[in-house]
Input
Amino acid sequence: MNWLGRLSVCLVLSAAALSLYAGPFQPAKRSAPAEIRCLAGIKKINVRVGSVPADLKQFMDDNLLDALTRSRLTSAGFEVVDDAEAPELVFNFKTLTDPAWPDLMGVVLLLDVEQKVEVLRLGEKMRLPTTTVVSRALANRETIRDVIAQRALNATSQFINLCKQLE
Output
C-alpha cells in the first residue's frame, strides 16, 4: 500500500473514531415562549366573563359557560377559586355581522389569562393578560348558543394543554 492509500485509511479511521466519540448530533433544547412559560405552576384559577357585545348578550348563558368551564378545569386538576391573587381566565367576545347575511354571526372568543406581573421599567405590579387563546366560529343565530359553549370549552382545553406541556 502506498503512502496515499495509508493516508486515506488513516483519515477514514480517524473520522470514524471522532464520530463515535462525538455521539449523535442533537439540536439544542428550545424553551417555550414567555407567554407559555408564564403558565407554569398554575393550580388555582379564577373564571369570569369579560366583554360581551350587545348583539351577542341575548345568546349568552353566563351560568352555563361558567359551569362548563369549571367542570373542564376541575376535571383537569385545577382548583377554581374566587381569589384576587390567583390568575384569572377571562372570556372576551367580539362579533362580526353583515346585513347581507342577517342570520349569520361571526364570533371571536379571546380567552385571556390575566396574572399579576411586575413591569420592571415602571417598577409597578399590575394585573395584565399574559396569554391569549383565540377561538372563532361562524354560526347561524339558531345555533349560536351551542357554538359559544363549544368554543369556550375548546379554548379552555387549549389553556389546559398549554399548562400541561410545562409539567
